[in-house]
Q: What sequence folds into this?
């Protein structure tokens, strides 16, 4: 109970909760009418977008004390992993979609 | 002036994610959508590096480490993504997803260490109650983010290993009960740690971490074959939620919107896939395939006779057909036969045969896997029929050619209530005049279920590697 009160007492948390609720509906609305051809690229694109967790990794890394080697190493590792997720995700998605593009141009040409 | 730049960049980031996802769901704009999201991500990342300040106004440091990590990640990520074969795409997505989960997990671990390690003199003054000074919301955010991140990480790695054949299916009796138990322990420990804050809190945090990793492994291990796409999609949305918890942690709106968007969009995508198989998510996760034990006796039950067909006969049959429907499956992807397949389609068309592809939504290892594969070979978009349309046209089709597909044409899904795939909609190939099945051997498909279709009177088997068989078939057709 205390926890729930705490949750609503802080305006910042409350604002974030509002964003959460709206984003849930937005996510459902945005992709609810997607043709099955695009399921794989869409999954892959969404995969790249959740790589936004990299921002957390950068903040952690940037705040680590220069003598706290454990934090530095773990932070560095998380930046590498997050970047892999973002860059790999976007590049793979682009490669998949490139094929659709190529095909379209051929049809026009 | 300068301090509005960071929130502005985050706002741009959030908007590009929404627009990017929206554009990704239309064939014409999909590629641009991916690019839009990537640009937004770059802006958000650069803004964080150069503009982020903590509550005391301090900027971030350790630029060498940050840029070092970014560069290594970019080079490795680009190379891996460029080099990967089209067939291995699903594994790759699963692997990248695991990286994101691991990233979320590490962030939580570092933040936990940061909040629980307090200068000694302060610690002595406050005693163990220092732990109690951490706000409950912060504490729970860190732990839940860590749990979801590590489940997603461990699960994705197992899914990756299973898809590329490094890890075999493994299950034991009562595994689901063990899994539920693990989940129960994680929940109970989390509640205990957050509510009570015992002296062993730090140790218990790492216990939760280990159990979460174990749960991720156990969660994916028993799920076999045909259900793997659903699992990857689900893990994808897990990582989204883990990223969103990071957003809570840092009060960061772009992490929150990005994470939650993926969380909810991924969940919808998962449900769409389950619908395609006519099964509930619960059924996929809990009622997983029984593995080898079940497939054995079922196979022995009705090992009837099958008939083979020669390449020559196949060529003649197809050349004089009015309409041919090609049903691709994972076997086509493995054999890298998509280009030859397109060649076959072209040569048949030159001979006046109407050719279409019947695409089952879960054929291959990922939804849309076959579409991507055939698009690579420049097969025109209009030739790819979705399951309902393909089934409508089946009765007017003279020859159905099944290339490395198995479970998606298994009549047991309609006829045998004891079959693990009972209830899944299939391509009803038996409505056509002839059915030709290309397989490498009589071995059951990925899901390990015997397929009675191969023994039916309409069916002829054409054994061999899909690429080799198709090449030979094309040259035979040239002579007909």
A:
């Amino acid at each position: 109970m205390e926890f729930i009160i705490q949750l609503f007492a802080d305006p910042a948390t409350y604002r974030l909760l509002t964003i959460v609720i709206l984003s849930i509906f937005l996510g459902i609305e945005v992709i609810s009418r997607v043709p099955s051809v695009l399921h794989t690229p869409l999954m892959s694109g969404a995969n790249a977008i959740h790589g936004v967790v990299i921002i957390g990794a950068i903040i952690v890394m940037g705040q680590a004390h220069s003598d706290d080697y454990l934090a530095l190493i773990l932070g560095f590792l998380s930046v590498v992993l997050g970047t892999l997720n973002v860059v790999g995700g976007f590049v793979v998605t682009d490669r998949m979609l490139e094929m659709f593009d190529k095909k379209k141009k051929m049809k026009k040409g | 002036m300068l301090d509005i730049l960071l929130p502005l960049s985050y706002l741009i980031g959030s908007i590009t994610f929404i627009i990017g996802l929206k554009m990704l769901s239309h064939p014409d704009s999909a590629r641009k959508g991916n690019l839009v999201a990537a640009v937004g991500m770059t802006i958000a990342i650069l803004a964080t590096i150069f503009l982020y300040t903590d509550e005391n106004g301090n900027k971030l440091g350790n630029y060498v480490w940050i840029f070092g990590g970014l560069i290594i990640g970019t080079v490795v990520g680009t190379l891996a993504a460029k080099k990967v074969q089209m067939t291995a795409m699903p594994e790759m997505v699963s692997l990248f997803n695991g990286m994101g989960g691991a990233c979320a997990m590490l962030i939580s671990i570092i933040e936990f260490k940061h909040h629980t390690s307090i200068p000694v003199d302060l610690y002595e003054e406050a005693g163990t109650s220092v732990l109690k000074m951490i706000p409950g919301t912060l504490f729970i955010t860190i732990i839940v983010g860590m749990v979801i991140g590590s489940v997603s990480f461990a699960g994705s790695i197992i899914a990756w290993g299973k898809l590329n054949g490094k890890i075999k299916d493994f299950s034991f009796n009562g595994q689901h009960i063990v899994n539920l138990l693990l989940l129960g322990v994680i929940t109970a420990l989390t509640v205990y740690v957050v509510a009570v804050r015992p002296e062993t809190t730090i140790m218990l945090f790492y216990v939760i971490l280990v159990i979460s990793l174990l749960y991720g492994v156990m969660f994916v291990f028993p799920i076999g074959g045909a259900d793997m796409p659903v699992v990857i999609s689900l893990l994808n949305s897990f990582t989204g939620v883990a990223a969103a918890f990071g957003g809570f942690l840092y009060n960061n709106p772009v992490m929150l919107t990005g994470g939650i968007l993926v969380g909810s969009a991924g969940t919808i995508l998962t449900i769409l896939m389950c619908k395609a198989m006519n099964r509930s998510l619960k059924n996929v996760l809990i009622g997983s395939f029984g593995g080898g034990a079940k497939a054995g006796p079922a196979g022995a039950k009705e090992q009837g006779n099958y008939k083979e067909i020669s390449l020559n006969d196949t060529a003649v049959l197809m050349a004089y057909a009015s309409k041919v429907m090609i049903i691709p499956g994972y076997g086509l992807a493995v054999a890298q036969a998509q280009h030859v397949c397109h060649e076959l389609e072209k040569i048949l068309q030159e001979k006046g045969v109407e050719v279409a592809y019947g695409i089952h939504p879960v054929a291959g290892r990922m939804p849309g896997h076959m579409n991507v594969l055939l698009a690579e070979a420049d097969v025109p978009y209009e030739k790819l029929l979705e399951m309902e349309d393909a089934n409508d046209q089946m009765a007017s089709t003279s020859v159905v050619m099944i290339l490395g597909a198995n479970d998606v044409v298994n009549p047991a899904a309609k006829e045998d209530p004891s079959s693990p795939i009972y209830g899944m909609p299939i391509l009803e190939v038996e409505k056509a005049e002839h059915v030709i099945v290309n397989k490498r051997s009589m071995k059951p498909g990925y899901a390990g279920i015997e397929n009675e279709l191969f023994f039916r009177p309409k069916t002829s088997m054409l054994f061999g590697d899909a690429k080799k068989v198709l090449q030979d078939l094309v040259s035979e057709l040239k002579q007909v």
In short: The longest helix of chain B spans residues 89-116. Chain B touches chain A through 118 residues (CB under 8 Å).
